[in-house]
Design brief:
By secondary structure, the chain is mainly alpha-helical. The protein has a domain of 25 residues. The protein has two helices and no strands. The longest helix is centred in the first third of the chain and has 22 residues.
């Protein structure tokens, strides 16, 4: 798998996590579940930023 393919998969995963955790749940998660979700999103974002083009980084 190329870096481009890996970054596409990671970007899709990150967007799905944001959609599910931040948008769909809209604050209905308890604190520990929200922290876990935020940690998973941060980890996926960090790995994505390693594989993507510098201009495509998630801030």
């Amino acid at each position: 798998m190329s870096n481009s393919e890996i970054s596409k998969v990671l970007k899709s995963l990150y967007n799905n996590l944001v959609n599910e955790i931040d948008i769909q749940r809209g604050g209905s998660l308890d604190d520990s579940s929200q922290r876990l979700g935020d940690a998973v999103k941060a980890a996926v974002k960090d790995v994505y930023n390693e594989y993507c083009d510098p201009s495509d980084r998630i801030n």
